[in-house]
Amino acid sequence: MLLRKVSFALIALCLITAVPVQAVAAEKGAAVKSNKSSIAKAQEQLRSMGYYTGKIDGIAGPFTQSAVRNFQRERKLPITGKLDNNTLKAIDTAYSAIIASLKAGGNERLIVSELAKPSPPVKNIVMRLSSRFGTIDFVNVGSSAEKKYSVELNGAPVSVLEPLPIVGGSKVYQAGDTDAFIITGYDVKGNFCQYRHVLFVLNKAGYNIVPVKNCTREYTLQVNNGSLFIIFSEKDNSRAVGTTWRFDGRSLYKL
To answer: Per-residue pLDDT tens for 59-71?
Structure first.
């Protein structure tokens, strides 16, 4: 009888202690997941603001800590390299302020004739852009009413949006040691996505063409902290399709 009472007591003790242990384990798991998510979000925001260039992995490694220290230093926070609550809040506030400031800017209209024309005029060249690394000409290949153009870099044709006709472009912006501008084509047969954009990038090594996956006609371009931000309209024909992109001089990121 005594042995049975002891057994029941041991079983009851195990049941009592097992629940808190499992609960604590679950809480720890949730905390780790939440912490990793917060770190990943901070990495995204720090990368968008030009502080971080590493992977978005949710791990506060040496590169993340270095980015955090630089942010804390500029924002007059204690320089710890740790993503404490105050630092996370400051990063989120700074990121939100930058995005709000960018979206408050004016739109770049996709009408080539509004941009700089060659002086003196050159036959068939309707726009000339000056870059630190070359001259870009938009050459008329259709009637004046059609507004269809090809692109030449230092007098040599460049395949940009073939076979779509080019209908517009932006000014040239400097992002670090590269120059970049937007070229837009129009797909008359496109059911949903009629406007196609590419980022034309120039540097000492040559040029590169980077697709920008967005369908809206109007956008805002602005340089902030050495990066070029591309903000597309929130709505186009009543469709919610607005997106923001960041070009840091090397890669294009969707924010």
So the answer is: 999 999 999 999 9
